[in-house]
Amino acid sequence: MDQWDLDTHLVEPREDRCKFMSIPEGKSKLKVCVALQTLFVFFMLSTNSFCQDTRSMNEQQSFAGSWWQNASADERTGFLYALDDCLTFDRKPGLLFDDTWITYGKKISSYYLTSSTQLTTPVQSVFEHFGKREGSRKILESKTRYGDEFWRSHNEFARRGFIEGFISCRVKEPNSPKWSKPIDYYLQSLDDLYNADDRHGEDAPEYAGSAASALMKNRDR
User: Fold this and answer.
1) Percentage helix, strand, coil for the chain under 3-state DSSP, each rounded to 5
2) Do the beta carbons of residue 161 and residue 77 sit within 8 Å?
3) 83: which residues sit within 8 A by CB, 6+ positions away?
4) Which of 18, 156, 162, 175 has the least C-beta neighbours within 10 A?
């Protein structure tokens, strides 16, 4: 049942949804029914919020095909931005990605549609195949990391995707940094650093470093 369905159930209570209840017909039965529906919705939403907000990055999904197919377009894009950032600057030797994000997105989606058995392949593994391992060092050195311009110009879904992509990429390295807090913690921290959406006012200080360095500031000590 999605949020729209839940809302509809709340504003349009019907007695036939409470047939299991041995309560006399009439308004009393309807009131009890509405109360139970409201309690159920509250429980479901609270449970969903708990699961979303308290899972650490170490407990997140594997970011494979099933995740990709269910993620929004913005979250996917943010995820690919992060993989580009990580694989270009933190992977040695770095990879060069010089196609458009629309093209990469279509290629990844096509890969997962080819066979259901491929849904277990991590998005990063698919994306790496598009990188040029013998790219021009001059071109690689001319690239800059994603920072305040990226963060402030994209929505929360893309920002979340960036965090998911960057951390999941870095933790694959030997002796990698660790991020054990929930994703929402890092999202809130970077939103504050970059004064995203002018949350602290138009003239508030804004972090000028890269999103990668901001996440490194938030890694486990």
Assistant:
1) 65, 0, 35
2) yes
3) 123, 124, 127, 165, 166, 169
4) 175
pLDDT in tens, 166-220: 999 999 888 889 999 999 999 999 999 999 999 999 889 999 999 999 999 999 9
Q: Determine the Cα–Cα distance for residues 189 and 35; give it in Å rounded to an integer.
A: 38
* DSSP-derived secondary structure for 122-163: -HHHHHHTTSBTT--HHHHHH-----HHHHHHS-HHHHHHHH
Rg value, the chain, Cα = 22
> What 8-state DSSP symbol labels residue 56?
B
Decide: 212 and 145 in contact? Cβ < 8 Å.
Answer: yes
Phi-psi region of 197 (alpha: psi -120 to 50; beta: other; left: phi over 0): left
Helix (H, G, I), strand (E, B) or coil at 178: coil
Half-sphere exposure of 71 (CA within 13 A, CB side): 29
Give the pTM. 0.72
Per the CB < 8 A criterion, the answer to whether 52 and 184 are in contact is yes
Is 40 exposed, middle or buried, given 0-12, 13-18 or 19+ CB atoms closer than 10 A?
middle
Question: pLDDT tens-digit profile of 32-46?
Answer: 444 545 444 344 444
